[in-house]
Amino acid sequence: MKKIFPLSKVYSLLEAGPVVMLSTAFKGRNNVMTLSWHTMIDFNPPLVGCVISDRNYTFEAVKKTRECVINIPTLEIAGKAVACGNVSGRRTDKFSVFGLTPEKSAAVKAPSVKECYASLECRLADARLAGKYNLFIFEVVKARVDTSVKDPRTVHHRGGEAFMVAGRTIKIKSKMA
């Protein structure tokens, strides 16, 4: 039997993907923030929608530079990823404080996070909803994946301090009724 569920926690039911670390380069400084409110918007070109609070240092960096890197961490660095989400980049060098390595990107000035399983170099495609909903649409212009990681265990935010680790990959065949 289904029971009433608090509307303030609906996001925990619809979690769209892994926790990511969004990196920027702005005013001569590298920064990285943790983000879990994102979704694929289109396949070709690959477009990703990200909600970035207008109170975050990254919001201004993205608006001004029009680029970023979406880095996908695995369970091995989940503690660092969560810690990056609890500190402002305005006054903290998160790469240094949390022992992360900025890596030169190929298509954008923002650095990738070397310790992450995958890095998606992005350019801002659409910011029309940023003023109202803090929603930025990025086009992925270069993607790199660590091929030595065969079964990446990504971390998914369920709200508050609750996270879920992605399990094994399975295949499901479609069955007609």
Q: What does the model show?
A:
This protein has a single domain (7-165), classed as Electron Transport, Fmn-binding Protein, Chain A (Pnp Oxidase, Chain A, Roll). The model has no long low-confidence stretch (mean pLDDT 92). β3 (38-42) and β4 form a beta hairpin. It has a 7-stranded antiparallel beta sheet with strand order 2-1-5-8-9-4-3. The protein has a two-stranded antiparallel sheet with strand order 6-7. Strands 10-11 form a two-stranded antiparallel sheet. The protein has helices at 57-65, 78-84, 94-97, 130-133; strands at residues 20-26, 29-35, 38-42, 47-51, 67-72, 102-103, 112-113, 118-126, 135-145, 155-159, 162-165. It is mainly β and 177 residues long. The protein is globular and about 55 Å long. Helices cover 14% and strands 36% of the residues.
Set down the secondary structure blueprint.
Elements: E1 20-26, E2 29-35, E3 38-42, E4 47-51, H1 57-65, E5 67-72, H2 78-84, H3 94-97, E6 102-103, E7 112-113, E8 118-126, H4 130-133, E9 135-145, E10 155-159, E11 162-165
Antiparallel strand pairs: 1-2, 1-5, 3-4, 4-9, 5-8, 6-7, 8-9, 10-11
**What is the domain total for the residues?**
1
CATH superfamily: Electron Transport, Fmn-binding Protein, Chain A
| Count of beta strands | 11
- Give the helix level as a range of percent: 10-25%
Q: First CA to last CA: what distance?
A: 25 Å
Q: What value does the average pLDDT take?
A: 92
Q: Major β-sheet, in short?
A: 7 strands, antiparallel
Question: Which CATH architecture?
Answer: Roll
What order do the helices and strands follow? EEEEHEHHEEEHEEE
| Tally of helical runs | 4
Proportion of strand residues: 35-45%
Strand order across the biggest sheet?
Answer: 2-1-5-8-9-4-3
Low-confidence stretches: none
* Shape summary: globular
CATH class: Mainly Beta
> Could you name the CATH topology?
Pnp Oxidase, Chain A
